[in-house]
Amino acid sequence: MHATSGRPEVALTFHTNGDIGVVDGLFAAVARAKVPITCMFVCNWLERYPDYARRARDAGHEIGNHTYTHLADLDRQGAPVVRTEVERSRDVLERVTGGAGDYFRPSAMHHSTPTVLAEAGRAGYAHCLSYDVDPLDYTDPGVDAVVTRTLAAVQPGSVVSLHFGHAGTIPAFPRIIAGLEQKGLRPVTVHDLFA
Predict the structure, then answer these.
(1) Could you tell me where the beta strands, DSSP code E, fall in 106-185?
(2) What are the φ/ψ torsions at residue 192 (nearest 5 degrees)?
(3) Distance (Å) of CA 65 to CA 26, 38, 39, 98, 119
(4) Fewer CB in 10 Å around end: N or C, the chain?
(5) Is 19 left (phi over 0), alpha (psi -120 to 50) or beta?
(6) CB of 3 within 8 A of CB of 9?
(7) Domains, the chain, ordered by start
(8) Cα-based angle 127, 131, 135 (whole degrees, multiple of 5)
């Protein structure tokens, strides 16, 4: 998935959960870079740390739904399980931030199944979010690998998949931003990318 507007923009999206120290470090790196990101919250985590969604929202970042429990086999689940994952997460986002976000990203899959698309739509999400750049930072391949993989694949309109819960993403982030600038690409929210 990537936008076709031709504008020199990319969306940096983050699967948002993980160790609080790592999350704080990445929020600090994002704040220093002064760029908008899209935070896709895993909401059983967010229930424990609701201030992070409010911090993201208040800093001008976009918020989205990334399931309630981050099931690894969501693509093999029937409608009732998918519905619960989408709706329960939506309800947490609404309670914490006052809105459900515009996008749903399923867990552990690149493309939404027909069941996921149907249940997300029923829950009020007209869009399921995928990505075209995945540096696999969640495998902890090292900072250089995260930076190189991102910058080698990114192009105008790209949606990049990154993760808050992995320490190597913190030092990679400013280098990714610098590399995007060298390529003439500007980070924007998903909403703005597809506007």
Answers:
(1) 127-128, 159-163
(2) -70, -35
(3) 19, 10, 8, 13, 13
(4) C
(5) beta
(6) yes
(7) 9-193 (3.20.20.370)
(8) 155
pTM of the entire structure? 0.96
| Proportion of the chain in helix, strand, coil states, percent, rounded to 5 | 45, 15, 35
Q: Alpha-carbon distance 95 to 98, whole Å?
A: 6
What would the pLDDT profile of 18-71 be if each residue is shown by its tens digit?
999 999 999 999 999 999 999 999 999 999 999 999 999 999 999 999 999 999
Residue with tokens 């075209």: 132
The single residue listed with the structure tokens 């997460």 is 89
Neighbour-count burial of 6, counting CB atoms closer than 10 A to its CB (0-12 exposed, 13-18 middle, 19+ buried): exposed
